[in-house]
Amino acid sequence: MSKISINIATGSLQQAEMIVGIDLGTTNSLVAIIHPENKKAVALQEHDSSSLVPSVIYFDELNNIIVGDVAKQHLEASPQNTIFSAKRLMGKSYNDVKQNEDFFSYKIIDDNTESLVKVQVGNQFYSPIELSSFILKELKNRAEHILKTPITKAVITVPAYFNDAQRQATRDAGKLAGLDVLRIINEPTAASLAYGIGTSASQSEQTIAVYDLGGGTFDVSILKINNGIFEVLSTNGNTYLGGDDFDKSIIEYWLEQNNIAKDELKQNKQLAQGLRLRAEEAKKQLSNADEYTTTYHNYALSISKEKFENLIQPFINTTLQHCKNAVKDANISVDEIDTVVMVGGSTRVPLVNKSVSNFFGKPVNNSVNPDEVVALGAAIQADILAGNNKDFLLLDITPLSLGIETMGGLMDVLIPRNSKVPSKAARQYTTQKDGQGSMRIAVFQGERDLVKDNRKLAEFNLTNIPGMPAGLPKVEVSFMVNADGILKVKAQELRSGVEQTIEVKPQYGLTDEEVEKMLMDSITHAKDDIATRALVEAQTEGEQLLETTEKFITKNTALLTKEELTTTAQAMQALQLALTMNDKNLIQTKIEELNNISRPYAERIMDNAINVAMKGKTI
Ligand code: ADP
Ligand code: MG
């Protein structure tokens, strides 16, 4: 229980252990708390300024870091030094973001396509985790200034569609900002908490849809609430859809109207930002007016509400398609939804409300400020964690399937998407070679059948398996997803008891030590370092592949055709040669080629092996 005392000297309220709720948004971020006196959730704001802190970071000439409204003012004049929408880069590689690269007017490092993306400002390199930590640090400072007490604990919200890597990245950002992140919760779950839905334990069962259209992300969640228990039945959404897209379509319309070539925006970053800010202004005005008109430099910029609605209808339709999918995944029909909750600044657009209301066949619920509702819910969750509120129990779900790689690069799902968390699952596997002493466990996340299309989270070896004939060892792999949606994996050989447990740190996240090191080190990383690491990683992967292929061929020569043996030998030679040249891309190409050759027969032989092995499966 937290204690509250009044500081007589300043007259301010002090709380012994204040846990704040933070909405770390793509566009705007804010902090909320439970008011110590009236016990209501409130967003923190300084005097009469807005509670919203734009998630924008400006690096000035002296490399001072400025966050919020002031930073936003530099978007036009200093686009290369002003970072917005960093949340879209969380847990992403350059490959993940390159098709949307035009969206960013600052420099995203593109020479290492697979590892965590970095942003370059001047001669400094920043990870999205560091960038997010600057925003969190600003929020922490503001909260401390307003509350006049140190803030060290927080609940932070993330879109329901965030994967493990992105959740871990958010947690790491909190740590870098000096915050102990007690819980990461889904934004729609927080929003429903803020609506007080399910507060009364006697209330009968309700089904709720939460429609969250922010600046950069769209989420829809279907929740069931019964006896004060929140259960997320399904989630759906898109991390590249939001009010930013409305702005972009207005900009495109204006370019057309003013005969400005699209290429010109690439060269003239100031013009690009100028139009972006005016497009947003137009959009907001059109929520309450029929026409927007202004001039910018020599351009006449105007748009009618009707035109605007035509432009954005396709985006709204996409969100409704996601709603349809969510309803389907929840195994219910649209008319079983009792309440629709609107979240996110973009739900202020009247056409959004109208379209969503039509889709669900009932009026939508938008009485709580859509900009603040998520932070308010996070504050309520923080209060629950502080032990002050026992009315709630929270159940969440895994947004993507979790599984391991089996032979031939196939994905074996242990925990399907939309499983409730905390969640546990276990499955048995066996060895494929006589006397096989170790087994590689590669953990993946995603919905595709082949692991290569999914995201690798971790990999480890279960070693010291005692010598036994192939098929005899029983290796149980178990997955545990904790309440934060973070995964722990254990592999145990049941006959001997040999086991190995790892906490899966998503590939694009950071280990605790790495975060610590980042805190200690300067935040500068040479571009060379990044390139070297990528090369070393590719070389290691290539060496491992050669080794496994070699062993596989030796064991299965009899089962392979002459042609398969020849093409494999050639591909192995090519890879071997590539390993001696310091060319990451060449190595990766050769890895891919060898994999393409061996995959078909590996699958074939695995099928045979499964038939042979009486029980379990072959990894
Ligand atoms: P996020 O969760 O992505 O940080 P928010 O919920 O703060 O986003 O919503 C930000 C988006 O809402 C921006 O695209 C902003 O332009 C838009 N927005 C804010 N107010 C209005 C309004 N009155 N009309 C239309 N869009 C608005
Ligand atoms: Mg939001």
Short description:
The protein is an alpha+beta fold. It has 15 helices and 30 strands. Helix 3 (128-147) packs across helix 4 (164-176), helix 6 (243-257) packs across helix 8 (269-286) and helix 13 (527-556) packs antiparallel against helix 14.
Provide a descriptive summary of the structure in words.
- With 619 residues, this protein is of the alpha+beta class.
- The protein has 4 domains: 1-195 and 369-394, 2-Layer Sandwich (Nucleotidyltransferase, domain 5), CATH 3.30.420.40; 243-310, Alpha-Beta Complex (Actin, Chain A, domain 4); 402-512, Substrate Binding Domain Of DNAk, Chain A, domain 1 (Sandwich), CATH 2.60.34.10; 528-614, Substrate Binding Domain Of Dnak, Chain:A, Domain 2.
- The chain is built from 15 helices and 30 strands.
- The strands form 8 sheets. Strands 3, 4, 5, 6, 13 and 14 form a 6-stranded mixed sheet that branches. Strands 20-15-16-17-21-24 form a 6-stranded mixed sheet, sandwiched between helices. A 4-stranded antiparallel sheet has the order 23-22-26-27, with no helix packed on it.
- A hairpin with a 2-residue loop joins strand 16 and strand 17 (229-238).
- The longest helix is centred in the last third of the chain and has 30 residues, at 527-556.
- The two termini are 49 Å apart.
- The model is unreliable at 1-15, 506-512 and 518-526 (pLDDT under 50).
- The chain binds adenosine-5'-diphosphate and magnesium ion.
